[in-house]
Amino acid sequence: MDFGPYEYTVKRIDGDYAYLVMDESSEEKCVARALLPESIREGDRLLYEYLQYSIISENV
Q: What CA–CA distance (Å, rounded) separates 32 from 60?
């Protein structure tokens, strides 16, 4: 099992799912919003480490 750390950007939010990318050329990763911080918005940067996501910078 891989525990990271990895950085993602929230590319888009669609209902109960968010689509994350590592960079502009990477494939989207679909993640249930229940696994993410409640306050995420499109453009936010997330850190995935030890099976948890946390916001590292917010899109203002």
A: 23
Determine phi and psi for 35, rounding to 5 degrees. -90, -5
Residue 28 has pLDDT above 70, yes or no: yes
Q: Order across the sheet with 52-57: list the strands.
A: 29-32, 17-21, 6-14, 45-49, 52-57
Tens of pLDDT, residues 37-49: 999 999 999 999 9
Instruction: Give pLDDT, residue 48.
Output: 96
Q: Which residues contact 19 (CB under 8 A, 6 or more apart)?
A: 10, 11, 12, 13, 28, 29, 30, 31
